[in-house]
Design a protein that fits this description.
Number of strands: 0
Helix content: 55-70%
Number of domains: 1
CATH superfamily: Rhomboid-like
Radius of gyration: 21 Å
CATH architecture: Up-down Bundle
Length: 212
């Protein structure tokens, strides 16, 4: 697990979240038509939404419902997968938006939920692909905490279920792509395992009490 101090660990996610809340304040007071900067599929001008759409939310409730899971997933990303956290997040962010632009229904798509679905999927499938105790335990924890997210994949009116589905698929891809990038704790265990393989008997065998 990443030993970075907790406040420092949350610095970038909190900065990003502050940006989202500042934009929502502007949206609700000065610029009520910010939704037009979302992703509009298969229109060239709609490509701007790949970057902008996750920053825009339809209401304060929409933003609040995304803020808590974003912080939780960010904590898991940075704490347990520090080497790939930033790269995996950027991959999920951009490829989810591109997928929505290519395949989603023709309407403005806004909100961070597609990216969050990608993060949840990444955590779960990293446990499947990496197959170490830490990743599997984390995958099970995410499955318990966010099992309700499966309902978000069901088509619904006025909900961008396509971004949820595409984000989940991109999360699987990102987990597979970075499956062989070892984290510091994984490297340490591998080194200890290799060290033990060099000896036929345990290294401390002569230090054991005789009654053993």
């Amino acid at each position: 697990m990443n030993r970075m101090p907790y406040l420092q660990r949350f610095k970038r996610p909190l900065q990003f979240l502050f940006l989202l809340w500042a934009l929502q304040l502007a949206h609700s007071t000065l610029f009520p038509d910010m939704g037009r900067f979302g992703i509009f599929p298969r229109e060239i001008w709609g490509l701007r939404g790949i970057v902008l759409a996750p920053l825009i939310h339809g209401s304060w409730q929409h933003l609040l419902s995304n803020s808590v899971p974003f912080l939780v997933m960010s904590f898991f990303f940075i704490s347990f997968y520090p080497r790939v956290a930033s790269r995996a997040f950027i991959m999920i962010y951009l490829l989810t938006g591109l997928g929505v632009w290519l395949f989603a229904g023709r309407a403005f798509h806004i909100g961070l939920s597609g990216v969050i679905y990608g993060m949840v999927s990444f955590i779960f499938w990293s446990g499947v692909f990496r197959r170490n105790a830490k990743s599997i335990a984390l995958a099970l924890a995410v499955l318990v905490l966010y099992s309700g997210y499966f309902y978000g994949l069901v088509p619904k009116e006025r909900i961008s279920w396509e971004s949820h589905l595409i984000g989940s698929l991109i999360g699987i891809f990102a987990a597979f792509w970075y499956r062989e990038t070892p984290e510091p704790d994984e490297e340490k265990r591998e080194e200890e395992s290799e060290e033990e393989k060099r000896y036929f008997l345990p290294r401390n065998i002569f230090d054991q009490p005789k009654n053993e």
